[in-house]
Amino acid sequence: MDRPRVVAISQARMTSTRLPGKVLMPAAGRPLLAHHLERLSRTPGLDAVVLATTVNATDDPVVECAQGLGVAVFRGDEQDVLGRFAGAAALAGADLVVRVTADCPLIDPVLVGRLIAAFREGQPLDYLSIDSTRYPRGLDAEIFPRRLLDEAAANAADPAEREHVTPYIYRRPDRFRLGTALVPDVPVEPADQRWCVDEPADYELVRRLLEALVPSNPGFGWQDCCKTLRDHPDWVDINRSVRQKTPH
């Protein structure tokens, strides 16, 4: 069998409820979305990156940013994120889909590459994710076959399953083989961090990290972020009060 085509799909829109326009907010001279897509595109084992956004005119700047980086774009219904992902996967001819979200500007390409390798080389699974209880939020990624994405898009009726893309899969452990991967080599210090951008405090932290790291080390990894935060322990408190939204 030919090697499966592995495509990362990220979602972004300007009308996020908690921090509208967040994906184009600046840090270290570039929009957060540009940092996210550029880092994602360096992932080992990845064949393509596609951005899934909406047909709304408000998202034209999102499209322009992605296309300026050479990233393909699929546009679909704002409320039906699952449908957008299925359309993006079809556009790119994906066999395996890596799902990420554009509110993660610090995403680590090496970590995502390890997720891809673990899925392809480990025991047969239908779904594998980076263990978000072991890493800072904002490094999250999931991988699964496109056929399951197509099944979900055809059958999911629950609004949460259409908004959050993968609950159709991971809520059905009786049908699908699920796994979490990539326990870090060392405990995360400081622990319980949020590196995703949902609220202004999140943006302030991520902006500081990008501006501290990009000038001298543009290819930095997640552990470089941990070191920077150990050097600036007060930064960890910037967004400590923000709570993660969940689809459950």
UniProtKB/TrEMBL annotation:
One Gene Ontology term of the molecular function aspect: transferase activity
InterPro entries xref list: Cytidylyl_trans, Nucleotide-diphossugar_trans
Gene3D superfamilies linked to this entry: Spore Coat Polysaccharide Biosynthesis Protein SpsA, Chain A (3.90.550.10)
GO cellular component: a single term: cytosol
Record keywords: Plasmid, Transferase
PANTHER family on file: 3-DEOXY-MANNO-OCTULOSONATE CYTIDYLYLTRANSFERASE, SPORE COAT POLYSACCHARIDE BIOSYNTHESIS PROTEIN SPSF
Name of the protein in its database record: Glycosyltransferase family protein
Organism: Azospirillum oryzae
